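Researcher: Here's the sequence for the chain we discussed earlier.
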Amino acid sequence: MAIIRVGLVGLGEVAQSIHLPVLADQRDRWVIAGVHDVSPSLVALCTSEYPTAKAFETAEALINSPDIDAVFVLSSDDTHSRFVRAAVAADKHVLLEKPACLTVREIDELLVLTTNYAKTIFVGYMRRYAPAYLAARDELPAFADITHVRIFDLISEGRHFLKRSQNILYPSDIDSALLARGARERDTLIREIVGADAPADLVRAYRGLTALSSHHISAMRGLIGEPVRVLAAHRTNGGANTSVTFDYGHFACQYDAVVDDLGLFDAMIEVRSNTKRIRIVYDTPYIRSLPTRLEVTEAGPLGPVTRTFGPLYGDAFSNELETFHRHISDGTRPLTDLADSRRDLALMAEIIARMKEAGGR
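Model: Thanks. This is the structure I predict for it:
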């Protein structure tokens, strides 16, 4: 099995809690060859913990290094397009954290750039690689028999979980001018979708869609296909909470996201027919190796009968990176590629359009 030399651009929460430990665990597939971050303290921490990692002064230097085979783009969302462009120019494999970009325009430009690209570009939607999700595909009722789909996300931010389970460094040594410039660039991209004069709650709603909500929008499409349209969308709680109804023709899919500071995470996907219900249950994505569960309930002569698969301890993040490595080795195309991510961003833009029609709520 070929060992791939990885360079990581961005060493924040997801790199420290997920990608670096998984890469180190899968030492038969990967070697952490390089790191870059705008925080000197993060670079120092990661090079001390992962001795094979060379520190690079700039992202471009890491991307262009002949000692790097695959670039993990884990930096802020507004930088994704720029770093993917650089990685393509350097002929590297790419793992791109979600969202792939913040706008459909950026994705379309990348799709033109990568039309005949021979290397692998893989977007990190780990929920589509969770064991319960993979098992659910074999248990789904026939599409024509589906009567309703319900998706729920109760979300608390990662620090609620990580501060009790891991020692994550949140740096205080990033240049303030750099942070301000990034915030301006991110706001400019978001306002391409929400509008130049959009209220703060609509901006927050879109940021939520492109952040953790994007996982379930992608998972929904991977499980039951593309919706006909976004039928309705509303935002409440200052844009933190989102309710969306997707039209699938003969059934509706209801998605609800609730964000709070309670420190709970409750995520599930439920697909129903008249005689069957499957339910995928996720725990917080911030902690590796927490189990996922699949519940399948069917009508029986004595009443409902439920079969439970799990708890399934196969790590979605580990499965994701194993799949990425396999695509690199086989030269095959991942399901979660740029074209797939474009469909997520197009749906998010449609959700924002429905929210505008509904007015401020």
